[in-house]
């Protein structure tokens, strides 16, 4: 299911709602907030019932409303979720989504003037429901435009896909080969009982325990692990293993193994970890790898994993 892929539009991953045709009742920025939409009945402000979403006025003329979103991470869009949670008598009956790829840092006016591609055709919506739309398009996009027909409220817009950054910016420079923003992705994981493994390669610092990756308590032999597909084949020289916020559930130790085809290349032997601590380890390996397996012993959680190096 495409929802296991990162939400390219999420505010905490750098997304922004840069313009909207109207936001009379509820602000456009709510569209890309993390988490489920909230609601408190009979909570009225100066503009009416307060909604955790985007809501436009009742349209009395022909046309439709729209919101323009700059993706926090450009990429290939595999699916869109339009969530009308709590909008029951004021949701739009139809919606469509378009996308565009723009270089540099265009203004909203420049983006709107570009040539857009429809990725979700005009489709019927239900109120107070998540609507999933798969996208069959392999092009890279930087912006999306949600159009509602004719007006109403949408709680959240999720744009799931595969990150495709412009790595030419790093020519001759080092970078975090594991970073989600650079095209890294967790492709396998032993356990994700408490939180999603892709959290460990998200931008910024984890603000609390749930913003990292945490496994269930292991009662049998073995250990938990995840595999990170790097932004590209490269040499990893510095590993950052961060257990911040994991006070009583940090792993006892960590080890790192590089993968390149059928080869396994030791990068970091089993090394003790401290709770609630950012750790940094210089690595001696000079062989390029495409993936790195992070083994935690025996279980627990990590806030972030950074793997700095150079693309080959």
From TrEMBL:
Highest taxon, organism lineage: Bacteria
Q: Which residues form a coiled coil?
A: none
Q: Which residues form the Allantoicase domain?
A: 14-163, 183-311
Pathway stated in the Swiss-Prot or TrEMBL entry: Nitrogen metabolism; (S)-allantoin degradation; (S)-ureidoglycolate from allantoate (aminidohydrolase route): step 1/1
Q: State the InterPro entries in the record.
A: Allantoicase (IPR005164), Allantoicase_dom (IPR015908), Galactose-bd-like_sf (IPR008979)
The cross-references to NCBIfam families, in alphabetical order and at most eight, read: allantoicase
This chain belongs to which protein, by name?
Answer: Probable allantoicase
Source organism per entry reads: Nonomuraea insulae
């Amino acid at each position: 299911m495409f929802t296991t892929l990162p939400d390219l539009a999420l505010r905490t991953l750098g997304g922004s709602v840069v313009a909207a045709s109207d936001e009379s009742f509820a602000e456009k920025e709510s569209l890309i907030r993390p988490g489920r939409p909230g609601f408190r009945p009979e909570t009225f402000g100066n503009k009416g019932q307060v909604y955790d979403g985007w809501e436009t006025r009742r349209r009395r003329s022909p046309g439709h409303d729209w919101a323009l979103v700059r993706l926090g991470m450009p990429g290939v869009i595999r699916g869109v979720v339009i969530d009308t949670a709590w909008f029951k008598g004021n949701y739009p009956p139809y919606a469509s989504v378009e996308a565009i790829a723009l270089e540099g840092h265009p203004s909203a006016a420049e983006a709107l003037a570009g040539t857009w591609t429809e990725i979700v055709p005009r489709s019927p919506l239900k109120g107070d429901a998540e609507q999933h739309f798969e996208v069959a398009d392999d092009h890279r996009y930087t912006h999306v435009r949600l159009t509602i027909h004719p007006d109403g409220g949408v709680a959240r817009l999720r744009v799931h896909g595969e990150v495709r950054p412009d790595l030419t910016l790093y020519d001759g420079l080092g970078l975090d080969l594991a970073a989600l923003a650079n095209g890294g992705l967790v492709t396998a994981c032993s356990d994700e009982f408490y939180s999603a493994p892709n959290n460990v390669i998200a931008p910024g610092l984890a603000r609390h325990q749930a913003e990292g990756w945490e496994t269930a308590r292991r009662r049998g032999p073995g250990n938990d692990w995840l595999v990170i597909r790097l932004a590209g084949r490269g040499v990893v020289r510095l590993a950052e293993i961060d257990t911040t916020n994991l006070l009583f559930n940090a792993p006892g130790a960590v080890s790192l193994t590089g993968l390149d085809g059928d080869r396994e290349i030791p990068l970091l032997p089993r090394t003790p970890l401290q709770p609630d601590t950012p750790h940094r380890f210089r690595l001696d390996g000079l062989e390029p790898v495409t993936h790195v397996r992070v083994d935690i012993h025996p279980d627990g959680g990590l806030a972030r994993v950074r793997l700095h190096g150079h693309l080959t």
